[in-house]
Amino acid sequence: MSAKIRPLSGFPELLPAQRVVEQQVVDTLRQTFELHGFAGIETRAVEPLDQLLRKGDTSKEVYLLRRLQEESPEGHAGLGLHFDLTVPFARYVLENAGRLEFPFRRYQIQKVWRGERPQEGRFREFTQADIDIVGRDTLAFHHDVEVTRVMLDALSRIDLLPSLRLQVNNRKLIQGFYAGLGIADTDEVMRLVDKLDKLPVEQVRALLVDEAGASDAQAEQVLALATIRSADASFVDRVRALGVEHPLLDEGLTELAALVAGCADLVDDRVRIEADLSIARGLDYYTGTVFETRLDGYESLGSICSGGRYDALASDGRTTYPGVGISLGLSRLVVTLLARTGMTADRAVPSAVLVAVNDEDSRSESDAIATALRAHGVPCEVAASAAKFGKQIRYAERRGIPYVWFTGEAGHQVKDIRTGEQVAADPDTWAPPHDDLRPKVVSRTDQEQKQ
Amino acid sequence: MSAKIRPLSGFPELLPAQRVVEQQVVDTLRQTFELHGFAGIETRAVEPLDQLLRKGDTSKEVYLLRRLQEESPEGHAGLGLHFDLTVPFARYVLENAGRLEFPFRRYQIQKVWRGERPQEGRFREFTQADIDIVGRDTLAFHHDVEVTRVMLDALSRIDLLPSLRLQVNNRKLIQGFYAGLGIADTDEVMRLVDKLDKLPVEQVRALLVDEAGASDAQAEQVLALATIRSADASFVDRVRALGVEHPLLDEGLTELAALVAGCADLVDDRVRIEADLSIARGLDYYTGTVFETRLDGYESLGSICSGGRYDALASDGRTTYPGVGISLGLSRLVVTLLARTGMTADRAVPSAVLVAVNDEDSRSESDAIATALRAHGVPCEVAASAAKFGKQIRYAERRGIPYVWFTGEAGHQVKDIRTGEQVAADPDTWAPPHDDLRPKVVSRTDQEQKQ
């Protein structure tokens, strides 16, 4: 291959050391999801176009597929790349309903594609990590608490994350409040309230009156509700103080209070949960709990982890499958952190040891040492050439490999090239300290101090 | 979502228990590749179309991308989905050459797409697992031995595989032999010899004479070479006995003999290596070592693991990057094994324990037990409803969860529901036997005996 090489805007790729960081986040998520009993599945990358276009407002983002040799675009199977993992999961549930046990807990960590204009944190190809619990006919509310707990647990295990807050609200609470106020078009009001993080409050107030037909008093109450936030159940009294009453509001308040209380034991300085009554998730079809997540210091990224409860995640006409889930924007998170903080790994290769080669004739002896080290789980590589030892050490240094293994008249010796310390060692039993076994995530500051 | 649900031919999807099998294979590959110092990278799913079409003969298989809202197909960026991991890797090497250390070892486990007609083992979307070592300007031959050893090690660690043989040959050997015979168009002869596994030998003989312009004597020698195979270096004498001489042939014989000898210690009854002088890898641009792999009893699948040496994996005009690598058709392997053997996992969920719920009011106590179990790495889930204990046990049985945790007047008790044995246990310290901690791969026979 020889050609002009052009990075593609919106299709981020990582260098090997950066990929170590991403892989560690993926591993942590997977491990946490499995500890909570979530089964990992993958779905195909493509869905029939008619399925992808059911959510009207995302149609502009879909990538269509066509085989190069196909006669005409009309002749194709009408396939597009999935733009999220919810549409394919709903289809998977319907397709396999008879072979799944409900409630069905699944996690799914896969790439998705959207033809959006690329910008910071917005890509055309990116990885999402989704968890959902789906029931058949019914799904108890305690599963809303469960998915929240799982994602909080996962986020708290990702060491490299800045502090963050998971913001929760409840559509029943909002809709019940609006209904109690006598507002007819609750969806339109919700859509306008969702603009509060982009527009000044006075402009939203005007839109509520002009576009949603709310009275000044109704608009006032709607905006008052949206200002309420609390890290505990105290929001309930503040909503009650607004004097609005509706059975659906009661239900929403009870659920949201239970959610915040049910997660209290998982909260710490770094990972918080907050009832935020301005969160509405715009046009998405949620029917109860809704989630968004903000990283402190990364407000411009928007929500990195969102979701909620669907009373009908999927339906085949006879059976309805309610679900509750959260989707973490993994690439948005990792690529942005890498770019802004310079975070990386302390080595670009898995090798903890470079086995030196004395001369090409004895390469197989070095191979045998490497085989012995690997047999008890020590990642290593054999030097590419039998250069002078100084050169072989520099080869290890450039890759960040901490140890070099020598074999000579003095027998087997292993050298920590960071300290210069060299000790006798047996390839069948020697292992580095646990901390050196795998590449470690380091900040730019760590790296600078090292150099 | 409600709609007609149609599986798409060529886009295989797995049930959760089947996905456990695939995930274990992926984990084993990744672990082995990292033990050998290979860095994991991912590349974007798309490449510019002109890059994808450089290999003329695969153009028919490419999927083109177009955004739904794009004005006209002509206006698009000319992107297609990658059909292998070699083209994107070569591009990645050129794009990042200044930031990589050479020789650069990488593994890459990703989906690829080809618009082929689906059949057993041939999919439109499938996962490949590739390893390559790429050098700058030069790459020593011992790296050919290294990638072979890594893949043999990986294959021997995948317990569920039937026995197999890695077939190796060398383009220099073939081309040197043909040149020594006085054949002008060695590429055409190689292409025809590659048909030996599909066509009768007499037909290939005729094609050699009619299409490649070989004499009867030359065709005879070409076919004689292609019959030679051996599990050790004895092929060298058999080639010499044909009386052909050429420097390139000598080089090829030396390399191939070194390859077979260099892997001898990794060979056993299940994983063999064989010099097979009929292997040519058709039109691919290999320049030395070539690989194919056959699973015993699955001959119709063709090669499940192929590759070889490129003198120019990539080039930017100034610098050339030689490489050697092998690509394992992971989906071809796993989906076929699952379909043919009924292999699956003994449970469809990661949970080793179901924590029973006494009543909804005490659900948080069950949650606390689950949290304690997870804190020392025991995957578990809490029962979805406070049904009668018999019903909760059947809930666990249907999912294959081996243990149920009860809390009552007798304190904490854990029951192995396969044996009925129930013992007192502390949620902060109790763990199942190691063998029960993760789902296990089982054959259909195991499953039938269990039921």
UniProtKB/TrEMBL annotation, chains A, B:
GO BP terms in the entry: histidyl-tRNA aminoacylation
SUPFAM superfamilies listed in its UniProt record: Class II aaRS ABD-related (SSF52954), Class II aaRS and biotin synthetases (SSF55681)
Reaction catalyzed: tRNA(His) + L-histidine + ATP = L-histidyl-tRNA(His) + AMP + diphosphate + H(+)
Region of interest called Disordered, as start-end residue ranges on this chain: 419-451
Keywords: Aminoacyl-tRNA synthetase, ATP-binding, Cytoplasm, Ligase, Nucleotide-binding, Protein biosynthesis
Segments forming domain Aminoacyl-transfer RNA synthetases class-II family profile: 103-350
Major localisation: cytoplasm
Compartment(s) of residence: Cytoplasm
Gene3D superfamilies, A to Z: Anticodon-binding domain, Bira Bifunctional Protein, Domain 2
Binding residues annotated for L-histidine, in chain numbering: 84-86, 114, 128, 132, 281, 285-286
GO molecular function per UniProt: ATP binding; histidine-tRNA ligase activity
Keyword Ubl conjugation assigned: no
UniProt feature coiled coil, ranges: none
Family designation: Belongs to the class-II aminoacyl-tRNA synthetase family.
Matches recorded under PANTHER family: HISTIDINE--TRNA LIGASE (PTHR11476:SF7), HISTIDYL-TRNA SYNTHETASE (PTHR11476)
Name the record gives this protein: Histidine--tRNA ligase
